[in-house]
Design goal:
The chain is of the alpha+beta class and 229 residues long. The protein folds into two domains: 52 residues; 145 residues, Threonyl-tRNA Synthetase, Chain A, domain 2. It is 49% helix and 12% strand. It is built from seven helices and five strands; from the N terminus they run H-H-E-H-H-E-E-H-H-E-E-H. A five-stranded mixed sheet has the order 1-2-3-5-4. A hairpin with an 8-residue loop joins strand 4 and strand 5.
Length: 229
């Protein structure tokens, strides 16, 4: 009456129906459980794939960083030592200063004579200038921050002063000084300083200057300026 495939399907239907009635298992619950298991499996596979991808990316970044460190190390080995100009020493007391150190009171001077220097406060230096290590660290920081703006420079010399320090920058071939001038505000922000000033032309040199103010500034006395004149 029934063909073999039809009989097989009918017997399977009776079997599963009897199994369901006997065990009380709902096939909808079984399918729901299978679907949940497949969903959990798919999430696990996706998470595993993401972990493998992140691990490969981390290895690639580490390899690139190591290569960059090797390149930078070679640059440092080939770099000429940073030339730090000596800080201007305290002015020696001149003959005029020694002569005018003790000023007699109520002394009338002839017309046209200059007032004595002893009337001015003597220069006092706190000695809080930047050390050679601090100047070296700031030089490397300037190079690094400009590199972040795609500008390759090398600090070749440093001239510290009482208020600002002049860093002499050797530009990479093809780099214009105006590009650094346009980045002065961004560079000041990156260096966490009030402002920077770019000196595009230094007479007698092929470098440009970058003036950065000190965090602790020295007081410049008028008496010291007049003594150096």
């Amino acid at each position: 009456m029934f063909s073999f495939p039809g009989s097989t399907l009918l017997l399977l239907a009776f079997f599963f129906s009897g199994f369901t009635l006997f065990s009380g298992i709902s096939w909808f619950s079984v399918m729901d459980g299978i679907g949940g298991g497949l969903l959990q499996l798919s999430r696990y596979l996706v998470a595993s794939f993401d972990r493998i991808r992140d691990a490969r990316k981390a290895q690639q970044v580490k390899r690139q960083r190591n290569e960059a460190v090797k390149i930078e190390t070679k640059k440092i080995e080939k770099r000429t030592p940073l030339r730090i100009e000596p800080v201007i020493k305290k002015m020696e007391t001149g003959k005029r200063v020694e002569k005018e150190r003790q000023v007699p009171l109520f002394e009338t001077s002839a017309d046209g004579d200059l007032p004595p220097l002893a009337l001015l406060d003597p220069a006092q230096h706190s000695g809080r200038g930047m050390s050679d290590k601090e100047l070296e660290a700031m030089s490397r920081q300037v190079e690094m921050k400009l590199r972040d703006f795609n500008v390759e420079v090398e600090v070749v010399a440093v001239s510290p002063g009482p208020v600002i320090t002049l860093y002499e920058l050797q530009l990479a071939p093809g780099t214009k000084a105006s590009k650094i001038t346009n980045l002065s505000r961004d560079l000041a922000r990156a260096l966490s300083t009030i402002s920077v000033r770019v000196v595009e032309v230094i007479p007698g040199k092929s470098v440009i200057g970058l003036e950065i103010p000190h965090e602790n500034r020295e007081m410049v006395y008028l008496s010291e300026v007049l003594q150096s004149a």
